[in-house]
Predict the structure.
Amino acid sequence: MLRFIAPVALFALAACTTEPRELEPQISLETMQEVTRTLSSDAFEGREPGTPGGERTVAYLIEQFQAAGLQPGNQGSWVQEVPLVEITSSNFAPLTVGDLALEHGSEWVGVSYPQVDRTEIADSEIVFVGYGVNAPERGWNDYEGLDMEGKTALILVNDPDYMEEGLEGPFNGRAMTYYGRWRYKFEEAARQGADAAIVIHEDFAASYGWTVVEGGWTGAQAYADTGDGGMNNTAMNGWVQLEAARKIFREAGMDMDEMILAARQPDFEAVPLGVTMSTGFDNAIRRFTSSNVIGMLPGNQRPTQYILHTAHWDHLGRCGAPEDEDQICNGAVDNATGTAALVALAQAHAEAGPTARTQVFLAVTAEESGLLGSEYYGANPVFPLDRTVAGVNIDALYVLGEAQDVTVIGGGKSELDSYLADVLALQGRTATPDAAPQAGRYYRSDHFSLAKRGVPMFYIKSGQTLTEGGAEAGEAGYQDYNTNHYHAASDEYSEDWDWAGVMQDLDLYFRLARALGDTGEWPNWNEGDEFRAIRDQSCASDANAGC
């Protein structure tokens, strides 16, 4: 079996309370290649949850976890069943506002989270709530004094200060916080009792065009089946295209640009527009079950403290057009590579021997449908979250060759940064910050389902400055994948891939997990971070002595 031997011996980092010891990671390139090749083959049909290809994926991962030396992670079982519901809406009435009749798809989209056969919104008063933020720790509440029952919240995407050039401001300037994400805005509108929530789309603020919204928010929508029928959500969540939003403000006799400027001020007060919204559509409901796959290596000193590794095993299934010769989206990079990394890392940790803390390997389902598998785990954790020390999420390892750096998404948020700095120094690499902080990428992969519940999580992407070709070659490689292969049938395994950079990244993940697994410390979110309060609360609980 081929092995990748790290060029620098691993030493326990300064943060550790154990005695320093040398350890050479033994990470199998052959395992990475074989698992990636297998999972992205046509036999797995694109690994869509709720299909035979998805079931084959789960069975294969159980086999691989077991062969790697893991133990079943869920009280003797390898899986955590994840109940899902799929809602497909049709027969959309126009979205009417006064004399306006906005066209579904080109001007607005809407979906039902509640599991009802028919969604009907009739004469719901529209209230412009600015950025829809309620952040007491930042002294900001766009809903202050409002009663939103039976009303529709019209909301701006991103944070109030996203137009700043730097990272200074009440919401970290250009770097998006969770408050800027559409998911938060829908959740907060529901908590406020709104009947519906509509986010105003704008390309730069959202970091993607209207075609992405139209494509992603029409057709079947999958959700975690929480058992309450989705009834704690608004009746409808949706988006409105920017120029269509201008029409709504004009119908209300208001200037949208003036309202946006006002919404960026801390003293902004929500504005009832004096117009109502109506629409309706039918919903077809399908329920099915998928699985998270969980394995573990018990710790030898503090086995009830956990280090988490996550990666999503699912992809899009058959996504090509009927006339396409190749209709299977194999998802080789996204995320057969990350899933294979779980297996290869588990194998390496098993051969290296246990750390003080338990190492957990979690392959989650339905990421492509909205982080559903990780969200279900976060709401129903197998290992208590107030005993989960930290974790790393692996999502799409780019096979571009050796790199001089790594890309850090969400840097500056937590005390994990010091662990990363130490390991990068051992590797002789540097950290490159997120080039598009306004895109909020930290809130768009599976680690977020744990982070928002207080668990500090790494999200590290492959480097941008390649050893051969530098930053220009790295940018060209990223652009080629994102433009030509991301979520396309062409994301397929190639025997010509250069795995050197991937193996660098696996070495990094291995070292981080060993350091966190052997230290006695509990890294926290930095002061002022949106997730600090929930971590502090869990650390203060009687059940978590020593956090």
About this structure: The chain is about 30% helix and 25% strand. The mean pLDDT is 92. Residues 70 and 296 are 5 Å apart (CA to CA). Residues 32-68+298-542 form a domain with the Aminopeptidase fold (CATH 3.40.630.10).
